[in-house]
Design the sequence.
């Protein structure tokens, strides 16, 4: 698994190095101007945070049924990446909002629900870190709650009146904006896969280490 | 008595030099360029944060992996040496 991580990281690194050039060449948005270019580094981590939360919930559910450690490693890695990508979305968002809306933060439905979902996954990691033996089962239950919030986060802008752009913005993007966005998204996705494989490798090695410690004690 | 006179003098002074309160807000269509927040530092800060977050996370992962693998090698060697 480790061998596959290096090419993935290299490909993602290449995309990340070339993405600023493509983003710089993309046209300016009419009302927001330069600050709208944060969008290319805000929307991909935000979307991957949602997908990662759903993925974490699904593999946690499988873990609760089958009890195979492989699914637990996967859920743990997905939860950690949900927090990482969520932090990116929640830092880049206010930087964009400061100029576009005039404020760093608004307690509207999208932003508040995103923060709540992010906090659920932070609590997942805290539970895994300090919960002791058996915490993986409790954490899997928590991941299900985290997953349940994801559709509400996505649809919140369409259901409630918010200052945040609607979900219809991305499907209707002009080609100039769309190319830069999906190019950037590819980089974030490749990095997500590479980091997940790396995280799972660490968990697998740790499990092996625990077995070896038990064997050495016997 | 002196204190009362001094306090009264200070109070009169405050009232005499106080700025009149703003009675209304006047809207303008465009604010002057000197009042506008520049975009470039915000864009650079956003990109820099994402880059730094990735580099920091990947670095911590490689470090953790290195530590676990080192521990695995040491323990495996100990187990092999213990076997008769």
Sequence:
């Amino acid at each position: 698994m480790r061998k596959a991580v290096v090419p993935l990281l290299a490909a993602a690194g290449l995309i990340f190095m070339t993405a600023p050039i493509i983003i710089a060449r993309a046209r300016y948005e009419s009302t927001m101007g330069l600050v709208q270019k944060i969008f290319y580094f805000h929307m991909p981590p935000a979307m991957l945070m949602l997908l990662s939360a759903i993925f974490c919930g699904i593999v946690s559910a499988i873990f609760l049924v089958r009890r195979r450690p492989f699914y637990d490693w996967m859920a743990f890695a997905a939860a950690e990446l949900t927090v990482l990508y969520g932090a990116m979305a929640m830092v880049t968002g206010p930087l964009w909002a400061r100029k576009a809306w005039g404020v760093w933060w608004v307690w509207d439905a999208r932003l508040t629900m995103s923060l709540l979902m992010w906090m659920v996954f932070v609590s997942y990691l805290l539970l895994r870190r300090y919960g002791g033996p058996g915490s993986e089962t409790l954490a899997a239950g928590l991941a299900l709650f985290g997953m349940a919030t994801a559709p509400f986060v996505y649809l919140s802008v369409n259901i409630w009146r918010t200052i945040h752009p609607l979900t219809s913005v991305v499907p209707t993007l002009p080609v100039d904006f769309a190319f830069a966005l999906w190019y950037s998204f590819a980089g974030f996705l490749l990095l997500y896969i590479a980091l997940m494989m790396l995280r799972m490798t660490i968990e697998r090695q740790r499990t092996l280490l625990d077995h070896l410690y038990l064997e050495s004690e016997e | 008595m002196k204190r009362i006179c001094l306090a009264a003098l200070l109070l009169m002074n405050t009232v005499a030099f106080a700025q009149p309160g703003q009675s209304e807000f006047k809207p303008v269509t465009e604010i002057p360029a000197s009042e506008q927040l520049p975009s470039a530092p915000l864009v650079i800060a956003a990109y820099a944060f994402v880059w730094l977050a990735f580099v920091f996370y990947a670095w911590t992962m490689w470090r953790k992996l290195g530590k676990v693998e080192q521990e695995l090698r040491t323990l495996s060697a100990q187990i092999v040496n213990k076997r008769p």
